[in-house]
Amino acid sequence: MGAHKIYDSTLNTFDIKYDLVIECVGNDRGTFEQAQQMINFNGTIITIGVFKKPVVFNLQQLWNQNITIHTGILNCYNLKELVLKIENKEIIPKYLVSKTFNKNEVLKAYETFMETDIFKVVVKL
């Protein structure tokens, strides 16, 4: 499941359709809507974004595309699988992480997460 292409969501071009789109930004930037525009027939959208506001799901445009949508966050059931994918370099976390903090900056990491538009925070132990 390694990424074959990283899409720049600021381009707003949807000329290529993908079998798998992983939306990992969340928030109110319209990336979930963009993922819907990028998905191919029989494709899969996986969203691991954190959403603070409602987003649009264009079912009226997607009902006949036979797509699959997976949502969720990391939990104890899929953590081992995720770690293995990182170790095997199938997933490169630096493309998913917004900000990294040292272990002595845990409070600062939490405050940054709560006060800004940064959602994927890593604290190095």
UniProtKB/TrEMBL annotation:
Family annotation (InterPro entries): ADH-like_C, NAD(P)-bd_dom_sf
GO MF annotation list: metal ion binding
Domain Alcohol dehydrogenase-like C-terminal: 16-74
SUPFAM superfamilies per record: NAD(P)-binding Rossmann-fold domains
Keyword Cell membrane: no
Co-factor requirement: Zn(2+)
A Pfam entry, by short name: ADH_zinc_N
Keyword Zinc part of the UniProt annotation: yes
Keyword annotations of the record: Metal-binding, Zinc
Gene3D superfamilies, per database record: Medium-chain alcohol dehydrogenases, catalytic domain, NAD(P)-binding Rossmann-like Domain
Family to which the UniProt record says this protein belongs: Belongs to the zinc-containing alcohol dehydrogenase family.
Protein name: Alcohol dehydrogenase
Species per Swiss-Prot/TrEMBL record: Spiroplasma phoeniceum P40
